[in-house]
Amino acid sequence: MKRFIIFGVILCMSQVGNAQGCNTSMGGNDGNYQSLAERFSLIEKKNDIFNLYINFSASGRTVDEGDGWHTGFANKELRLEIKGNLTNKLFYRFRHALNKSNVAKSEDNFAKATDMMMVGYNLSDKFTVLAGKITQIWGGFEYDENPMYIYQYSDFLDHMDIYTAGAMLSYKPVPTQEIAIEVANSFNGKLSDEYGDDIIVANGQSYKTIEEAKAPLMYVANWNGSFLDDKLQTRWAYGIQTMARNTYTRKLTLGQRLNLPKFQLYVDYMGAWEDMDHLGIITNDLFGDNIRAGKVSYNTFITKLSYQFAPKWNLLLKGSYETASMKDFQRAKNYRKSYGWVGSLEYFPEPTQDLRLFLAYVGRRVNFSDASGLSNQHLNRIELGLMYRIKCF
Q1: pLDDT tens column, 284-294
Q2: Closest to 182 in 3D by CA, of 135, 215, 146
Q3: Is 339 exposed, middle or buried (0-12, 13-18, 19+ CB in 10 A)?
């Protein structure tokens, strides 16, 4: 019988040839889905030591970015994930993107393709500690979703680098409330590897050459709350990130979610105030080689509605509004407003599997001020595809 189980796992692995998931450690409830190993061997899985997943998303799409419609097929997500609870105290999680670079970075010695490689330990019923390459514990519910389920990220999240080496401690005074603190690297590589040598920061009135910090670390405090029998959920966080010597980024993220049996709605706010443009949106719009924008601010509002209007069906509607600005540079003051929207009809054909088929429309428009001298942008995309979190074992 053991040979059949091993064969089933190998068979599933041979087919392969991001937020995160509702808490600060293992990634949330994966649902009562049956693994391929269970189906193949016709036995019930007896423990939670080893869980193997393949996160896969693909679609046929037609896209218009201002130069007419272009049609083709695209494979968006291909991630291998292994996680489990070795004891009632010790657990681990590994997730690796199979379609990204495997070159180790200079600071943490992990490849960008490795989202997470961490080990955690439950010190008690209230305290948990984990370390390794981990997810930065920012708040918000778009941030917390599995990347496979995101049709289009907001500009803010699309430019965040959220997987870095570090450690986290969480405290649950009661089962419905969690407070966590995290210390992690600001970058995967050295400052010069991320941005180049002799980096100049321009704030519109002056220029300065930045120097590498002695301790380029980020510090985040996070609160995850559950109220009214889990019908109201919160994910809030605030953090400071050391970018370079005497150069910092501050972020505030506030997520609120209404969680009803057949209807879910969240509203997120994300703000960043950066001495050096870490997100890079303003830098890419207005500056050039080795020059990064300074004293920048970003504000993002996101809302998403999910409605299970019939068995096996879900209607998803999502919208976002975002601004970017440099208060000391007239050309860049309130120069950018971005609007995003998504509508998707999802069908779940098999209740024992985390598989959804979808038809989606994604739109995005960026309006620039006259002073910026930039041309407005727009995106329209229609997709017909699938998302499948394959539970191999």
Answers
A1: 999 977 789 99
A2: 135
A3: middle
